[in-house]
Task: structure prediction
Amino acid sequence: MSEVLERGARIEQEARFLQDLITEVERVVVGQRHLVERLLIGLLADGHVLLEGVPGLAKTLLIRSLGQAVDMSFSRLQFTPDLLPSDVTGTQIYNPATAEFSNRKGPVFANLVLADEINRAPAKVQAALLEAMQERTVTIGSETHKLPQPFFVMATQNPLEQQGTYPLPEAQLDRFLLKVLVDYPEKADEIKIVEAMARPRPRLDVRKVTTIEQLTRAMGMLDEVYIDERVTQYIVDVVRATRDPASVGLVDLAPLIETGGSPRASIALGVTGRAHAFIEGRAYVTPQDIKSMAHDVLRHRVLLSYEAEAREIKVEDVITQILDNVEVP
Result:
């Protein structure tokens, strides 16, 4: 028992800086606490996040502010139809004076990478970035380079304009740990945003509140967050219900789901549940942690059928019904 209490106290102490980090980022990015927390969860879990939202919701400002608060390197990639894989990863440059080639690293070599409007670039460019995300290495010519650690990609998609875009295939969407929907701020928050930003040169200074070393140490402590066997069973039950909704009494959902979540979805629920508990300073995962992360983990992994689209049924509603019907331990 003393060991459990000691571990709980250690995690609570270690996680305190995260609340300071959230508060500092919120000074600049107002009214997006859910989004800030989800980015931190993705960072702690050593995964990547896909954001979907209309322009002007401070997505770029958010990840830049996060990098400043942790003192991490940041780069931004604006994806366009004429982008090449070498524009992302880097290329070889010939030096006539020495008659030799040298490697020039691309913008992917940063701790935080913003892939803006990722669905506007061709498949080969998307694949180059996603390979770097998965392997954490980049090969330029005959040399293989390791990406900096931590390495976190936040990709964005604009849901409004689909003309001339290249939608990410389902297998590539699955590489993202979370898919988060960015909504408009509340009225009170929007008033604060206008008061702070409606000026020629708004102040967007973010203080450094932590270090890469402290963040890396926190990432390593996720393994110490305890997941009970019953909570693990609950995770598996939720994901399996996306494949076979009739098993939890949702017979009507069966024709609406084309493909359910794979075991990667179960793994993602487990690791993000741990990260969610860690941010709250707890040394154990509860079923509520899993419920809190379920929509962001599953919305891009559960594919609906044509019947569901014809009936204008949203994947969020399907996930909610499954959560309401799977027995909670």
